[in-house]
TrEMBL record:
Plays a role in repairing double-strand DNA breaks, probably involving stabilizing or processing branched DNA or blocked replication forks. DNA-dependent ATPase involved in processing of recombination intermediates, plays a role in repairing DNA breaks. Stimulates the branch migration of RecA-mediated strand transfer reactions, allowing the 3' invading strand to extend heteroduplex DNA faster. Binds ssDNA in the presence of ADP but not other nucleotides, has ATPase activity that is stimulated by ssDNA and various branched DNA structures, but inhibited by SSB. Does not have RecA's homology-searching function. Belongs to the RecA family. RadA subfamily. A motif (RadA KNRFG motif) lies at residues 253-257. Residues 353-447 are annotated as: Lon-protease-like. Residues 67-216 form the RecA family profile domain. PANTHER family: DNA REPAIR PROTEIN RADA, DNA REPAIR PROTEIN RADA-LIKE PROTEIN. This is DNA repair protein RadA. Pfam families: AAA_25, ChlI, Zn_ribbon_LapB. It comes from Gryllotalpicola kribbensis. SMART domains: AAA.
Length: 447
């Protein structure tokens, strides 16, 4: 057996060194070099293995194409993200910040699957079984086919799978499970790699789908080696601000479906609830038009969502006026203020504080929201209003041109479904006349 030598490897690019350093010499990232045990010595020879029967390589046209069958989990929004449901034998990784609701969502999935299909094994490596039972009782996720186990050792988890013979396994979380065959603390690159490889092998060999919870770093990336994301079949990210009840689940990788679907949920006192039509969450309830507001149609994956943008312009004597934003990109707001000053003649913005925010806590970063932001700022500056039946979307360039937004037909269709009778987009060719006209003119029907 070769001896083991302690080396240090970068979790981002794989660069290795014999001594620990604070910054990776290959990719330049800080605090990504961690300890990794690798075998020393040189592999002199590899004995060939005789291949025959079904394992022998065949022409690709002779291989049967079995379509991956999805079975619904019972939560429509979660199935939307997965591409129709859970595929037998699939390894699904769900990552998110602490306290965002990952365990609550998966406990709900476990309860629905236990009620509709077969036994479900929920392995908690962070909480005791009694703590999970209390949460399940609070959220109404109790079922006789839902089995709980509090295990932190990989071998014990495999033993639980053998004993229960479940149709679905949930492991919460991969960073808190360790294997006695690998040295190092739980959560280290070597341990995470070993645990993930073993669980995925169990899923493939026994045709059991496994849902794995993953922690994230302060940058928002999945903690541990990037190999974990390559090994699993589906990578889902659970997003949301803990100050608001809204949550989004989006697929970053999906071997069985699209990666541009988004599931909407709302955290309540009784658990997590689906939001099949979130169109009213990001709009104010004011019947009378208010200056400084405009609605845009944003795209979350392939789902169009109406979002109301609000702006407030306040004169100031400060030498450097403030640009305060919430839910929008501050750099784009600063650029739009400069375009409005130069191209639309709103020179008053040079001596005014500008505040821009979205309703409902949603974050909109796509350039298609530029036109709505500009209209809201212009409306707040002039005191005019944008009609409640008006929606705007389009990217604004530094030259003042309004560029067409992607998925324009889908945005327009959603706006029409929600009752918006006036659309302002790239058909208004330049900011210099489009902004004043949109703020002061009465809304007109558009075909």
């Amino acid at each position: 057996m070769p001896k083991t030598a302690t080396t240090f490897a970068c979790t981002e690019c794989g660069w290795s060194t014999s001594k620990w350093v604070g910054r990776c010499a290959e990719c330049g990232e800080w605090n990504t070099v961690v300890e990794a045990a690798t075998p020393s010595g040189v592999l002199r020879a590899v004995n060939p293995v005789a291949i025959g029967g079904a394992r022998r390589a065949r022409p690709i046209v002779e291989i049967e194409a079995d379509a991956a069958s999805h079975w619904p989990s019972g939560i429509v929004e979660f199935d939307r993200v997965l591409g129709g449901g859970i595929v037998p034998g699939a390894a699904i990784l769900l990552s998110g910040e602490p306290g965002v609701g990952k365990s609550t969502l998966l406990l709900e999935v476990a309860s629905k699957a236990a009620a509709a299909y077969d036994r479900v094994l929920y392995v908690s490596a962070e909480e005791s079984a009694s703590q999970v039972r209390l949460r399940a009782e609070r959220t109404g996720a109790l079922h006789g086919n839902l089995y709980l186990a509090a295990e932190t050792e990989l071998g014990a988890i495999i033993g639980q799978i053998d004993a229960v013979a479940p149709g679905l396994v949930i492991v919460d979380s991969v960073q808190t499970v360790s294997s006695e065959n690998v040295t190092g603390l739980a959560g280290g690159p070597a341990q995470v790699r070993e645990v993930a490889v073993t669980l995925i092998r169990v899923a493939k060999e026994r045709n059991i789908p496994i849902l794995i919870v993953g922690h994230v770093t302060k940058e928002g990336n999945v903690a541990g080696p990037r190999l974990l994301e390559h090994l699993v079949d589906v990578v889902c990210q659970f997003e949301g601000d803990r100050q608001t009840p809204l949550r989004f689940v989006r697929a970053l990788k999906n071997r069985f479906g699209p990666t541009d679907e988004v599931g909407c949920f709302e955290m309540t006192g009784d658990g997590i609830a689906e939001v099949p039509d979130p169109s009213g969450l990001f709009l104010s309830r004011s019947v009378i038009p208010v200056s400084g507001t405009c609605v845009t149609i944003a795209m979350e994956g392939r789902r169009p969502l109406p979002v109301e943008v609000q702006a407030l312009v306040v004169p100031t004597e400060a030498s450097n006026p403030r640009r305060i934003t919430s839910g929008v990109d501050p750099a784009r707001v600063a650029m739009l203020v400069a375009v409005l000053d130069r191209r639309a003649g709103l020179e008053v913005l040079r001596k005014s504080d500008v505040y821009v925010s979205t309703v409902g806590g949603v974050r909109v970063t796509e350039p298609a929201a530029d036109l709505a932001i500009a209209l809201a700022i212009a409306s707040a500056t002039s005191g005019g209003t944008v009609a409640n039946e008006t929606a705007a979307f389009g990217e604004i360039s530094l030259a003042g041109d309004i560029r067409p937004a992607p998925s324009a037909k889908q945005r327009a269709s959603e706006a029409g479904r929600l009752g918006f009778t006036t659309l302002i987009d790239s058909d208004a060719l330049h900011v210099s006349f489009a902004i004043p006209k949109a703020v002061t003119a009465a809304p007109s029907q558009r075909g």
